[in-house]
Amino acid sequence: MPTRYDRSRRRRTSSRCGRPTKKGTPCKLAQEIGRACRHHATRAEREAAAEEARVRAEKASQQAERDQRTIRAVFALVA
Questions:
Q1: Phi/psi zone of residue 18: left (φ > 0), alpha (ψ -120 to 50 degrees), beta?
Q2: 15-51 residue pLDDT tens
Q3: Greatest distance between any 2 Cα atoms in the chain
Q4: What CA–CA distances, in Å, run from 70 to 34, 57, 79?
Q5: Is 26 helix (H, G, I), strand (E, B) or coil?
Q6: CA-atom Rg of the chain in angstroms
Q7: How confident is the model at residue 1 (pLDDT cuts 50, 70, 90)?
Q8: Dihedrals φ, ψ of 40, to 5°?
């Protein structure tokens, strides 16, 4: 049965960090780096996330270069 607060309740799209805060309560921020939020991620988790981001960026730039070459080839054939 729906309650009057159903519409106002915020939908959580990702898992919560859950690591203990200074007060001892679980962190409610979303997981961003590995399995932790931006405040509770370890150095190793941050380095791994940075490496993954570099790999994704490199793949995206290679794909963009391929697309540009394909477009140039098509224009050359049309012209």
A1: left
A2: 888 888 889 999 998 888 888 888 889 999 999 999 9
A3: 69
A4: 36, 20, 14
A5: strand
A6: 22
A7: low
A8: -105, 5
